[in-house]
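Here is an idea for our session: we take a single protein and study its fold together. Which protein we use is up to you, so please pick one and set it down. Once you have written the record down, we can walk along the chain together:
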Amino acid sequence: MFEGRLFVRTISSGSIIFCDNRQFLYVLYTIAGWAVFKEKSKIQRCQTCLDAILGNKTDAPEQSLLTELKSFSSGAGLTHPSKTILKALIAAESVFQTNRAKLTAVGNVHSFLVKGFTDQFAVTNFPTCHNVLSNIVSRFFRLRIYMLATKMTVDSERSEMKYSTAAEVHTVVQK
């Protein structure tokens, strides 16, 4: 889906993730805002969790433009994610891209991706009372699995259509 590359470098204090594609960051920021918006509705009474997942509008990066524009409409379904959530979803996308070729051979794709994420990305000082980080990452993986399955279906249908059209042309030419 994304043409940009993710670079994951592990240093003594944890992983640092870089991305060389600005479009990728716009899309990821929007997905993160959607996932946080969905999770926010479940934990309205826990200020600790809300503080951990919600970003500050003034600290929002350049990639928050769509979130800013959508924030003017009521019920837009986007909000600013915290920096930790954004970094976690960049790491989740890295896990997804790294294992993409293996996913069709895996029994439970979602569990496989979540395990890959937890093996790679460790967060300290993040509230665990409502499992908001794992819920958001899980929602992200479900969306990415759906997107990949949709792309594979469309590609398969196009391939079948191309072969059936070629067979029809070949039959007409031989008559």
